[in-house]
Amino acid sequence: MSILLNNISKNFGKFAALYDVSLEIPEGELVALLGPSGCGKTTLLRIIAGLETPDFGRVLLSGEDKTEQHVSRRGIGFVFQHYALFRHMTVFDNIAFGLRVKPRKERPTEAFISKKVHALLELVQLDWLADRFPDQLSGGQRQRIALARALAVEPSVLLLDEPFGALDASVRKDLRQWLRNLHQELHVTSIFVTHDQEEAMEVASQVVVLNQGRIEQQGAPAEIYDHPANAFVSKFIGQTNIFDLSETESNWLQRAGILAEKPQGIFAHVRPHHIEIVKAEEASGSPVTLKDWQHLGATIRVELFNPQHNGSGATLFAEMPNERFKQLNLNKGDRVAVHIKQAHWFN
Ligand SMILES: Nc1ncnc2c1ncn2[C@@H]1O[C@H](COP(=O)(O)OP(=O)(O)OP(=O)(O)O)[C@@H](O)[C@H]1O
Fold it and tell me: CA-based, 20 to 30 A from 22: which of 35, 73, 288, 323?
C-alpha cells in the first residue's frame, strides 16, 4: 500500500506538533522517520494509523482518502517500543489473537490459524518458543513475537514506533539486520520511528528527517549523508566538523592552506573522512597536533588539536582506515598537516 500525506498540520493547544508535512511513500518501501526528541515522529505515525486526526491535510492510502477512516479499518499493523504482549497468553496464543477476534464470518478455522501461527514463528525464527509465556522470553525475542503478531492479520502497512528502543546495543544491531531481511522477504510498506541516525541509515531504504514538526529532507540514506539539504541535516546525520568562516577561522583555514575549495558560504561542514592528515615538519608552520585516537572497528577516529580558535572548538575529528593510520606512524603530540578534501557549505 502506498502512503501519501498532503499538507498535514497538527496542533496540541497552541503548540504546533506538525506543520504542513507532505510526504509520499511508494508501496514496499522501508522508511525511517528520524529526528530529535519531540520533533513530531510519533504524532505523524499516529496520524497515518488513524489514532490521531490531523487539524489540516489529508491521508491517502493507495490513492484513497482515509483521513476520516477509523484505525481498525485501515489494514495497519503496529509494533511499539514497550509492546505489551498478553502476559497470560502463550506466544502461540498471542500471535493467534488478531485472527481469533475477527468477526465470525471473516474468522479463519483453528486449523488455518495454527498453520499460520507456525509459519509466522518460522518467519521470525522462533518456532521453538510457541508454548512459552512472554515473561520467559528475552527482550529481543519479545519484539520479534510482537512483529509476528502484527503480521498475523496481513496488514498492508506496518508501523513501528522505536521498535528496538528498549533493547541493549548488540541485540539492537542483530534485530536491525533481521528486520531488513524480513522486509526484503515480505515487501510490506513499513515505517519505523527512530532518533538513532545510525539505525535509520542501516535499516531504511528511505529516510525522512524531521525537525520541529517539519520535514527537513527525504531521500535514500547515501543521498542524505552525501548531500544534506541544510545545516540541521548535516549535523544530525553523522559526525561533522563545523568551521565558521565569518570568524577568525577563515584566516586560519587559508593560512594553514587546508581549504581546497573557495568559500561558498559562511559555514563549512566537513565530514571526518574528508580530512586527510600527514606528518608535518616542525618548520611547516602547521599549528595542528595529534591529540588522541579511537578505534571504530575498521576505521580510526583521530582527534586533532588546533590551538587557534575555530567554530567547532579547538578539536577536529578525522577518520581513516586502520591501515592508513598505521602507515602514517603517528604518535600523540606529533604535528600534522591537514588537508580538507570536501566541504558542504551553508549560510
Ligand atoms: N496528546 C498530546 N498533548 C499535548 N502535546 C502533545 C501530545 N502528544 C504529543 N505532544 C507534543 O507534540 C510534540 C511531538 O511529540 P511526538 O511524540 O510526536 O514527538 P517524537 O518526535 O515522537 O518524540 P520522542 O522521540 O521523544 O518520542 C512534543 O513536543 C510533545 O510534547
Answer: 73
- Per CATH, the homologous superfamily of domain 3-235 is P-loop containing nucleotide triphosphate hydrolases (3.40.50.300)
User: What confidence tier does 207 reach under pLDDT thresholds 50, 70, 90?
Assistant: very high
Over the stretch 255-274, which tens digit does the pLDDT of each residue have? 555 565 667 778 888 899 99
The answer to whether residues 30 and 206 touch, using CB atoms and an 8 Å cutoff, is yes
Is it the case that residue 84 has pLDDT exceeding 80?
A: no
Which of 8, 10, 12 for a ligand 1 pocket mutation test, highest count of atoms within 8 Å of Cβ? 12
The three cell numbers of residue 181 are 531481511
Task: For residue 130, count other CB atoms closer than 10 A to its CB.
Answer: 16
How many Å lie between the centroid of ligand 1 and the Cα of residue 157? 22
Residues framing ligand 1 (Cβ under 6 A): 12, 17, 35, 37-43, 195
Partners of residue 305 on adjacent β-strands = 289, 315
User: How far is Cα 163 from Cα 147, in angstroms, rounded to an integer?
Assistant: 9
Q: Do the domains 240-346 and 3-235 match in fold?
A: no
Contact in structure between 81 and 162 (CB atoms under 8 Å)? yes
CA of 225 to the centre of ligand 1 (A): 26
Q: Quickly name the fold that domain 240-346 has.
A: OB fold (Dihydrolipoamide Acetyltransferase, E2P) (2.40.50)
